[in-house]
Amino acid sequence: MSQRPENILVPLNFPPYPFRLQEREEKLYIFDELRKKHLLCTPEEWVRQHLIRYMIKQKQYPRGLVQIEGGLSVNERKRRCDVLFFGSRGQEYLLAECKSPAVKISDKVFAQAALYNTKHKAKYLLVTNGLHHFCCEMDYEGHSYRFMEQIPAFTP
Known about the structure:
about 160 residues, alpha+beta, HSDR_N, six-stranded mixed beta sheet, Type I restriction and modification enzyme subunit R-like protein, globular
């Protein structure tokens, strides 16, 4: 297998979840329950699937209010934010940017997520590599943000 599972299926800082994994043509695939299809299981996808499951199971976000890899245009360039969680009134609530566990969460990574959020103006911004999670509450009027101790739960 050219795509080594031990490099992808690393333990993360999320509860363990039972994922449907499949090997095809020497590649590992993970079943995405929201999109109802198998996706190539890259390290970033491994983190994204854990985050989505965590937000639905532990933080009570409804499945129907989750958008995965939604397209957006930033400075006339096509971009995709990893996961966008909506509030009960359809407002952008939490924008999440997922990275591989091997990627250190740096100012550059956080700036990328903040750039994506200029379009959405979500209340919360989350950046995770599966090992470390950084979540902040945005204050658009005050042009500032406040880091949270925990990822916020869904509030209807």
